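Hi R.,

Quick one: here's the Phospholipid-translocating ATPase rsb1 sequence you asked about.
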Amino acid sequence: MAIDPYAGCNELIDQSLCTFETCCLAQSHFLYLPNYGANMFFCIFFAIMILPQIGLGIYYKTWGFMVSMILGLLLELFGYESRVQINLNPWGANPFLLYLICLTIAPVFIAAAIYLCLTRVLVLYGKDISRFAPRTVALSFMFSDFLSLVFQAAGGAIADTANTPSATQTGANIMIVGLVLQAVSLGTFLIFCADYAWRCSKSVLNDDPEAVRTRGRMLFKVSMGGLLFATMTILIRSIFRAAELSGGFHGTLWNNETDFLILDGAMIALAEGKDCRGGQGREAGLVFGLVLALGHVGEDARVEGLNVHNRMMRDLES
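And here's the predicted structure, written out as tokens:
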């Protein structure tokens, strides 16, 4: 049964002192009460997804990828746990602040993990085919990611601690800048990948025997699709959040939980799932993590993956 957000309003009570008996939802941060079951589901999902990231990261020693993914997962977990707390007390300031900041910046770290994967893929196919050196590509996208993180975190803090409507909107506008920057960065990333794929089709690829065998594996091709899929889901989420905030904290999108759960929660869950199954192998940063997760890694395959990775790392350092 839907709750009337304006039923029982009492503007004489300070928001921090509100309860379900004394205030209405319109005096809280949303015009709806966050769904307990749906938000708890995402809490459990992101908590579970941390475990394979730790195991695969330690096994393959992919420290950068592991740290980025775990930070993203933890922020998602804290964000949805905060929404569960909002369900219990819609007027609390601290849970809302945690929700706003954590779920806004979490995808930044997931995107960083994707950018790390790209550098290894460039070396596997041929770093000379790329218009830019792998290191330049990684640093450029990760610098953009960092700027996006700064704008989103700063805007979230300003919006929640503001004392006037204009200051709140200023914080929201800063967050929008960060989200748009993230969307532009991800869009540019997809364009770069498409250009690199086209150049690969016209060029001689890295002819290292182990690299050739790796590229020919079906699991590698599937994981490349997973990487692309994860990028697109995060892009969709960034566009949605920018549109959501552009309407303000009283806008239609901001107060529609169904849209939020689908275009934010589900999109990031799909991205995390793809990265976890296809993201942590040492060869190319992708395939052997998927194979390990499925329990089909043989010793020969593992040794092959390690050899390819070591050669790739030497190329990156040269």
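The chain has a mean pLDDT of 82.

Cheers,
M.
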